[in-house]
Design goal:
Length: 229
């Protein structure tokens, strides 16, 4: 039996939040309601400060991860799409509009636009993101195998012949990852292969070293939320 659209979306959002926290050092929450401004997810990305970070970020507080490396927080606003068809460039344009409205509010924190998709991104979508002046992170999280088994239409996707990894691809644009971008060219999303499973996934690397995954304890996150509210 095919999964309902609502159930598919809710399940994908929950799974995305878990993967973002456990693998990419992002602590995000689901946003809902008429006043969400086009945002599905919002929260923080916990990364070490860069040498060429924007001057405003140097005034922000830092935290120390379990690896002893200081972390700063970068605000993340995201959209989560559980579509069957590949994601077209119109979704990037929509995200640009959302981030544009947010930036006019004169926030102190730097902001990254995150687009999480259950289907792959088209080439034109990636090109559109690369041409944007707004820091964008495109993340493809394929459906789990049991979701494909319950979806009669999933066979239309040519990628279902092999069991999908937790993360299919991770791509960010120059406004985020280049030397002139928000991350100062110090970060890379590298594909990491497992000698045990034969599979792989993208991992975060910082200045040539594998970066440990870390988010603050729950009490710290709650204190930040209360302070920002």
């Amino acid at each position: 039996m095919a999964l309902s659209t609502v159930h598919r979306g809710v399940t994908f959002e929950k799974r995305s939040l878990e993967i973002l926290q456990s693998q990419l050092s992002m602590s995000l929450q689901k946003v809902g309601g008429r006043s969400d401004g086009g945002i599905d997810l919002q929260g923080w990305w916990w990364l070490p400060p860069t040498r060429r970070a924007p001057s405003a970020s140097h005034t922000l507080p830092t935290w120390t991860g379990i690896d002893g490396i200081p972390r700063r927080r970068i605000r993340v606003l995201g959209q989560c799409k559980a579509e069957k068809k590949k994601m077209g460039p119109n979704y990037v344009r929509e995200m640009e509009g959302v981030l544009g409205r947010h930036n006019t509010q004169e926030r102190r924190d730097p902001v990254v636009g995150l687009l999480v998709s259950q289907s792959a991104f088209t080439r034109s979508t990636v090109l559109r993101a690369f041409s944007s002046r707004i820091p964008l992170f495109l993340l493809h999280i394929p459906p789990e195998t049991h979701e494909l088994d319950h979806d009669r239409d999933a066979e239309e996707d040519g990628d279902v012949t092999t069991p999908p990894e937790l993360i299919g691809s991770a791509v960010w644009n120059p406004a985020l990852g280049s030397e002139q971008g928000l991350l100062g060219g110090e970060y890379a999303a590298r594909w990491e292969w497992s000698i045990y499973t034969g599979g792989g996934r993208p991992g975060l690397w910082w200045n040539g070293e594998k970066l440990s995954n870390w988010v603050p304890p729950t009490n710290v996150l709650e204190a930040d939320q209360n302070r920002d509210s």
